[in-house]
Design brief:
CATH class: Alpha Beta
CATH superfamily: Endonuclease/exonuclease/phosphatase
Strand content: 25-35%
Radius of gyration: 20 Å
GO molecular function, one term: catalytic activity
Structural class: alpha+beta
Protein name: Endonuclease/exonuclease/phosphatase domain-containing protein
Pfam families: Exo_endo_phos_3
Distance between the termini: 18 Å
InterPro entries: Endo/exonu/phosph_ase_sf, Endo/exonuclease/phosphatase
Amino acid sequence: MRLILVLLFIVPVVNGFGQQKKYAIHTVAFYNFENLFDTINDPATNDDEWTPKGAQHWTSKKYNQKLQNLSRVLLEIGSAENTNSPTFIGCSEIENRGVLEDLIKESKIVNKEYGIIHFDSPDKRGIDVALLYQKQYFRPTTYTNIPLIVYRKEVVKKANTKLEVEEKTDDTLQISNYNNRVFTRDQLLVTGFLDGEEINIIVNHWPSRSGGEKKSSPFREAAGALNRKIIDSLQRINPNAKVLTMGDLNDGPYNRSVKIALGAKANKADVPPLGIYNPFEDMAKKGLGTIAFRDSWDIFDQIMVSQSLIQNNFSSFNYWKAGIYNKSFLIQTSGQYKGYPKRHSATEVGFSDHFPVYIYLIKEVK
């Protein structure tokens, strides 16, 4: 017999007494793994840095430590309310399917029996997005990678060309010398059934801020517009389609790519039919963050949901609440970057330069 995860919490009723209800709960997470490369030199990608003879001296020992570190995080994301690890894990900055196959075999999470949905993307550094899912709860029916096709010559005129302070990033924009196409990550769309209910998930890693935030903004606005187009296509088929879109957007919840191109709203009451709710905008206003630059925090990692998932009717799965997983073991404790996410260094294999994010989906169990 399959176990049903349940969460107990108290809801107020008219007579003033508490009524206890049971809810099935699933955690949905997103995590930028930051340079999850194997040690093998792939001649088709720019991965030379992440090899034993490369600049990072990336050995099997370091690679295996990275896998152990990530598996610890994946096991614990959302554990404050759900004893099970996330049912869904959107991930970015992974080199290939092989590194994910190695990750899900780690002892901490091997018994979760994660499935993998992954496609190679055009990114010249070889980093992709993917979705991990617990097979016992989710049955995928269709999945596809949708390319973001943008050209430098089409957006450069829209950009603010004033000098900017460029953010330090490994994720530089790669542009074709032939036709000026920007090589960036595809958007991954997965549809399937979560405990019998159809769910649509989009996993993203939008173009970086290489060259400066304002100068590169049009590329991410194009990504937001593509995301909106994908959601529109799902909602034309089914206006009540339940859609989650997640990823490292390289923009905060208040930037044009999210607010204008995608049209996400910070308050549930402001979300129109077919609209998108972003629970991470309020967190950003409070100064919380998933990534830091020059001691300034921002939330690049976000999970947003369609209006159909904020109905406050828990007879089917609906959004409950969201969070940033930033436990102390994920934080640098000394040096120049004290307080930042604990990433890889010359002396230590860390976790990532991003904190993971998560939301809960819950449904009343009669």
